[in-house]
């Protein structure tokens, strides 16, 4: 019998998140597909191939999500599949998305749909990517088609996934498909166009479905100075504004200023109904940065996930939530997870991160749902198949699946809407002493 229990509100959204390119397979009209074919772009030379085979059988994983007691899922639509050539829409692709969305509703799973999650149609790259202002009309046209054909099945929308990751990795780092131009000026221009695209999509969705909830999923790392001195702290403050804060500020007042530049963006002011927080880790920044934008040395005591992806730092989720309270909007944790092939850290990761959300809710912070990244192992961009984020383990050779221990735990949490000391005892006993001290053997004796 569970003694201590952390209970979540009855209408809390319990979900997982995926992205089209990462799970569908054979997205041959995407710029990522071309990128994969170039030597040295993807770790180990991996290919997305069938990915997690969602184009043929998303339903299998949706069954598993429903069995886990999930009532929500965040997925994305692949622009290059829906519009393989400019203005040419693929009705079969739209029909398939309709079946997937309907399959979610049939299973009591509420869809949250992302319109842009890192991948572009090849034709868009040829026309100048997000550097060209033309992208705004193209994105608006694509959004209008989705609204018209699928909008009745979509209560929640994310226009753009992680705009700052997109800009930094594509335009400054270069490990995602390279746009025609790179560098700071191109990054500024792309950011301005991403804001315009978001605003155009927001207005297009709301014009037809005023009740729909529309937001952005924003990567929100906790930034800290590597050296805790004046310059180190100044640099982090500045970087935090540029990377974490100014995006939301621009959505509030509609005024462009990333990281310099001026001017109003049409339709942008007030264009968000919720805040999507994607939280993974904390990062230490060195000043001066010298080539590397962030450090991936977390120190000797840090618990680090596979492939040195990031430090497990649950308190950061609470901090990330706290940082966006000032915008006074509902908050969804639109992504949170870790690569952990052997599931050695994920059970305790789930409990400790969800506990931070429970703590936030107990302060009346408006956290409305949690979408764990990810439901099933999927193609992790430039890190290919080397990093496994799924609650469901995938054998990419056979497409066989197996629910990880952490998936079983997440099922218990979602079905009961709570975390109990009994669950911790069974899945992550090392947490009992710190999270439920009253139930540790010491306290009982
Ligand atoms: C992205 C996902 C990615 C995940 C794990 C997020 O930044 O939105 O597409 O797979 O992180 O790296």
Report on this model:
- With 445 residues, the chain is an alpha/beta fold.
- It has a single domain (9-248, 274-413), classed as TIM Barrel (Alpha-Beta Barrel).
- It contains 16 helices and 14 strands.
- Strands 2-3-4-5-6-8-10-11 form an eight-stranded parallel beta barrel, surrounded by four helices.
- The longest helix has 25 residues, at 184-208.
- Beta-D-glucopyranose binds next to loops.
Keywords:
8-stranded parallel beta barrel; two-stranded antiparallel sheet; 14 strands; 445 residues; binds beta-D-glucopyranose; alpha/beta
Instruction: Compute the number of strand runs.
Output: 14
Could you name the CATH class? Alpha Beta
Task: Report the total helices.
Answer: 16
User: What's the alpha carbon Rg, rounded to whole Å?
Assistant: 21 Å
N→C terminal distance: 18 Å
Instruction: Tell me about the largest β-sheet.
Output: 8 strands, parallel, barrel
Bound molecules: beta-D-glucopyranose
| H/E element order | EEHHHEHHEHHEHHEEHEEHEHEEEHEHHH
Helix content: 40-55%
Poorly predicted runs of 5 or more residues: none
- In order across it, which strands form the biggest sheet? 2-3-4-5-6-8-10-11
Average of per-residue pLDDT values: 96
User: For the record, what is the CATH homologous superfamily label?
Assistant: Glycosidases
* Corresponding CATH architecture: Alpha-Beta Barrel
Category from helices, strands and their pairing: alpha/beta
CATH topology: TIM Barrel
Global geometry: globular
Strand content: 5-15%
Domains, number: 1
């Amino acid at each position: 019998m569970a003694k201590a229990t952390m209970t979540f509100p009855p209408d809390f959204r319990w979900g997982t998140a995926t992205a089209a390119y990462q799970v569908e397979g054979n997205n041959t009209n995407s710029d990522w597909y071309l990128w994969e074919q170039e030597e040295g772009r993807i770790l180990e030379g991996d290919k997305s191939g069938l990915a997690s085979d969602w184009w043929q059988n998303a339903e299998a994983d949706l069954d598993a999500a429903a069995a886990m007691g999930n009532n929500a899922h965040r997925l994305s639509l692949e622009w290059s599949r829906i519009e393989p050539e400019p203005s040419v829409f693929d009705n079969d692709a739209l029909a398939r998305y309709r079946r997937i969305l309907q399959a979610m509703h049939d299973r009591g799973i509420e869809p949250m749909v992302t319109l842009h999650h890192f991948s572009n149609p090849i034709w868009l790259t040829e026309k100048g990517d997000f550097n060209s202002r033309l992208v705004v009309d193209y994105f608006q046209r694509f959004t209008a088609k989705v609204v018209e054909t699928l909008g009745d099945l979509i209560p929640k929308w994310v226009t753009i996934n992680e705009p700052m990751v997109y800009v930094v990795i594509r335009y400054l780092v270069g490990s995602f498909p390279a746009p025609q131009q790179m560098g700071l000026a191109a990054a500024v221009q792309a950011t301005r166009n991403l804001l315009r695209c978001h605003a155009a999509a927001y207005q297009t969705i709301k014009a037809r479905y005023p009740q729909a909830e529309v937001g952005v999923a924003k990567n929100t790392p906790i930034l800290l100075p590597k050296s805790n001195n004046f310059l180190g702290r100044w640099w982090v403050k500045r970087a935090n504004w540029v990377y974490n804060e100014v995006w939301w500020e621009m959505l509030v007042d509609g005024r462009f200023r990333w990281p310099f530049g001026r001017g109003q963006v049409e339709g942008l002011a007030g264009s968000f109904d919720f805040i999507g927080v994607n939280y993974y880790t904390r990062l230490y920044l060195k000043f001066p940065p010298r080539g590397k934008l962030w450090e991936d040395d977390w120190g000797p005591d840090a618990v680090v996930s596979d492939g040195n992806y990031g430090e497990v730092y649950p308190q950061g989720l609470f901090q990330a939530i706290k940082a966006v309270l000032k915008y006074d909007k509902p908050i969804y944790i639109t992504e949170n997870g870790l690569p952990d092939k052997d599931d050695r850290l994920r059970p305790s990761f789930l409990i400790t991160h969800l506990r931070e959300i429970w703590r936030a809710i107990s302060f009346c912070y408006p956290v409305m749902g949690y979408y764990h990244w990810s439901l099933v192992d999927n193609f992790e961009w430039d890190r290919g198949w080397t990093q496994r984020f799924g609650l469901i383990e995938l054998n990419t050779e056979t497409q066989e699946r197996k629910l990880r221990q952490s998936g079983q735990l997440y099922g218990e949490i979602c079905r009961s809407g709570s975390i109990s000391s009994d669950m911790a005892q069974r899945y992550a006993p090392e947490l009992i002493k710190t999270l439920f001290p009253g139930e540790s053997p010491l306290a009982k004796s």
